[in-house]
Amino acid sequence: MIPTTRRTLLRTAAGATLAAAATLLAGCGKKAEAPAAAAPASAAASAAAPAPLKIAFAYVGPVGDGGWTFAHDNGRKAIEKEFGNRVVTSFVEQVPESADAERVFRDMASQGAQLIFGTTFGYMEPMLKVAADHPAIKFEHATGYKTAANMRTYDSRTYEGAYMAGIIAGKMSKAGVVGVVGSIPIPEVIRNINSFTLGAQSVNPKIKTKVVWVNEWFNPPKETEAAQSLINQGADVLFQNTDSSAVLQTAAKNKKLAFGWDSDMTAYAPEAHLASAIINWAPYYIKATKEALEGTWSTGGVWWGVKEGAIDIVSINAMVPAETQEQVAKVKAGLKDGSFQIWKGPIIGQDGKEVLAAGAVADDKFLGGVNFYIKGVEGKVPAGK
């Protein structure tokens, strides 16, 4: 699939093929001619074949980021593989979380998209506006919380991958200090920082987590600077909630350890890579497309994790002790069958007060509103978040 520009959003492989054929005939001194009339039976069969469903994706980063957007684009490719010529997909990359996103969504709608995916939190309000003006189009918003009759939300339980990474970090940190490069201080990211810390504390209760915020999802220079700052503060294992491989590569340059995030980042720095907490968007994207094709699509919200095959931790480095790998595998199995809960009390907040009572299990409403650090995380949640 060749990426579309914002001016030429939707193209079909068939159109490109016809253009190439016309050029070839012209080069031979021949004129491209319309195909001969098909037999009535063939014509009837052709007329009965439905037009492909046009699906468009808006990405916040480049498809080659190796992380978040790369994972979403793998999901788009899975749609093409699953449904073949029943669908036509396109994407626009590096769409800012601003008014410009609204323009891109309107462009997609005007060019015939019937199912539109917006793949970052900041697209929520722009997508709501466009959805209101195009009730016949189905809109899907990743990581948001607002819906409409023709707009639903979908998300992945990234905190599950963060917790499993934390188990490894807690074992592999010799300093007892781990660091996190945070993107934007919304509940999703704060929840991941806390979950990573809970995982680390399950191995080493004395572990400390330092955080540096970059206030962007994808900015390799800022991510590099933040990672170096954490190393300078004594962190010897780094984690991230940003989209590039910069944190892992910075760890490698400093002979420290780190994780991949959203996609398998082993190749960027295998000597420093402990594991990658990944998202597999394919199951959800296939489900949503199938519903759109079959006319069963409906609004609402979906939040999938290990249980549904959306979250995993992969490519665990051989340097991680076998017993730690076994512990991760046990947690993964428990998340899959529901026997293990990450957010189960007692959990103490950074201020020393209990945020979850002993034996209590956080529900999705609680998890969706996490705006505090747990005990062991240093610093303050940025004001106003």
Automatic annotation (TrEMBL):
> Which PROSITE patterns does this chain map to?
PROKAR_LIPOPROTEIN, TAT
- What GO terms fall under cellular component here? plasma membrane
Q: Does the keyword Cytoplasm apply?
A: no
The protein's superkingdom reads: Bacteria
Identify the keywords attached in UniProt to this record, alphabetized. Answer: Signal
Instruction: Give the protein name, as stated in the record.
Output: BMP family ABC transporter substrate-binding protein
Checking Pfam families in the record gives: Bmp (PF02608)
User: CDD domains per the record?
Assistant: PBP1_BMP-like
Segments passing through the bilayer? none
Signal sequence annotation: 1-26
The species this protein belongs to is: Rubrivivax rivuli
